[in-house]
Design a protein that fits this description.
Chains A, B, C, D, E, F: It comes from Metabacillus halosaccharovorans. Six copies of one chain form a homohexamer. Chain A has about 150 residues and is an alpha+beta fold. Chain A has four helices and four strands. The longest helix of chain A is centred in the middle third of the chain and has 19 residues.
Chain lengths: ~150, ~150, ~150, ~150, ~150, ~150
């Protein structure tokens, strides 16, 4: 039942965002049988961040959009990642702040045991702050769910 | 007022945790005039996680323990990092879950402008789950504050 | 001071929503000296859910709209019921989700003792999910307050 | 992708708790290919409520205890149900209140489509209040997750 | 339905705590037909803060302890005041912090209209911080409820 | 490291709001080397409350608007004060309520020790309630941060 050291889905999802060359790293993951995608979104609306990630995940075939259980798994992973980014209230513009984020969605089995099946990780990294250039600091979030 | 690309304190604090050789990387940061420390803590009590980080930061001279404003800055950075780890309620054993975490505390000025002074980053990475071996997944958190 | 088994206001308010024939059941409650009303509301705006329930409760004379203490009691019961529905952040469209809800408001004394006076129960039952047909699951909430 | 009117898992899980004869109703559900169990727990410790439900679900074979994804699904359903019960902070004794709850765990596919697979519903109904007999009112919670 | 300028219950409850001579001010309020009491509590346990206020309010006859609706009104006013003190999570020792508080409970009708009946205000003022002398700053909270 | 009895920044910031003659009291504080300002804001949008306070603080030179660390300190003090005002979810119009607030921002060193440097206090006092005249009660909030 243990996590596999070589298959730490959260670690991989975060390193993807912090990498110098995310595209190359994503390709490497795909060669190792991971499904994944990366993207960027900047907004004062939390719902636009959610929508950007959902759209990317569906468009890149990370989740099967006609099956609700897959969207449900992804949605909760996104919300959990947003907790790390917002640290208290999952609110942006309504409390006068904005984000500029890179995101990654990764899908695969991080456990030794085959029966654990697929899990999904959503990672977010970027800046949060006032809607004034430079008035911001870094922020990160990670959500992990079974799918 | 902008963040300096070479001095992204949050990114550095997280990479420190995900590194193959954290000690070497920490030494490298110190040579570049960052203050920092790393450590590990596993507990079902959130207050023990807070205490472990505070103790390490004071013992390693990251913050000046006789000045309350420094402890205050660190405390809020820890709490913000814990939001990412717990994603909803900053509670562990009281909702029957436990964490095994690495942590890093980093101090320096991540901005181009000298007047921005020192900031502090607290990063957390590890596992969260039921108090049963293997019943856990990864988790991450980052808190950043001016000091 | 104990709750009366025959007068469990929360249980009654929920069964009203889950009933095959809510109107008949509501009439029965009214014959037994309960005040109550039922309604439906679908929205991505939490404030529209609040408004729909408040309007129904005032229009049906469940609360006296010229007395603030009655509105205050109802408002907090609604907010508590919304916690059950939203499970974390009392937000809908701002985190890209929508609800389709039935609601009931019931007023009466659920306790053996007369001095306990009137209490108000707000129950909510329906679906919550993405703004995509079928991408939703059920949800319930109950708020109870003295009035 | 729509919810099946005859297979509303949340509605069934709640009616189970509010029924006059829960055991009979549970048997009927089992005959219709649902997995489920019911139980009771009273405590000032939220973690004891979590543990009681997890133990019952494992003992009754509702979830497979050797597969973490099943425990993970159940845990989050329990936590969501506790949000409805606690309405704000998932805390009991630490804010001087106690609960006396019935619980039900139900497992099956509530959707028309077979691919949606199994979902799990955790329902809670009982009283919450001061640790003084009679100083309490009713409370309800429902958590639903894919499994 | 408006608040009466001379009878602002929240303002009075806070000024009571900040006064140079709280006892004299409390007596003056009592002469003007307010019920009220003041007290002090220091703890790392939120439930001890709740208990201290409830005990003082009952002992001083501010609420009628045999009627649950009165305890219920007071409890929610206390919890709301604690939100102001804790600003995020209603937790003290579990996140390694402690409080030293003065509290006041005041009861009366702050509205022009007689039908608004009695309301209750709970005010808290003091310090919050690390369990180290001097490592603390001020904090305040106010909860108001109909009774 | 102790708080100085004569320099309790939170107490001063609140008394400023509750004073009969806030302008005079503010002038007195300025003569004693405090920086401060007062203002009023009424809104259903939390972000307008944040903006009003930030604008006043910058315009009156309480914080240096070209240095992000100062805005950062102020922002978190405002958010903490809003927790006291909203008591649960930092939301106004989105849950159908509105505020009418006075605010004060005060800056100075409340500690005996010079090294503690400047701290900032944001106090809020006014009413919160339904967007219907008179359907409201008082509310208060205080946020304190090092700057």
């Amino acid at each position: 039942m243990a996590l596999s050291k070589d298959r730490l889905i959260g670690r991989k999802a975060i390193l993807l965002l912090l990498s110098e060359d995310p595209d190359m790293q994503l390709n490497q993951l795909k060669e190792n049988n991971w499904k994944g995608c990366i993207g960027k979104v900047g907004s004062m609306d939390a719902h636009k961040v959610v929508a950007a990630i959902e759209t990317a995940a569906k468009k890149n075939g990370i989740i099967e959009s006609t099956i609700y259980r897959e969207s449900h798994a992804l949605y909760h992973a996104i919300m959990e990642a947003l907790h790390g980014v917002t640290r208290g209230q999952v609110q942006l513009g309504s409390v006068l702040r904005t984000v500029g984020l890179s995101f990654a969605v990764l899908r695969g089995n991080p456990y030794d045991k085959e029966q654990e099946g697929d899990w999904i990780a959503v990672s977010l990294y970027g800046t949060i702050g006032a809607p004034v250039k430079g008035s911001e600091h870094e922020t990160i979030g990670l959500g992990i769910n079974h799918i």
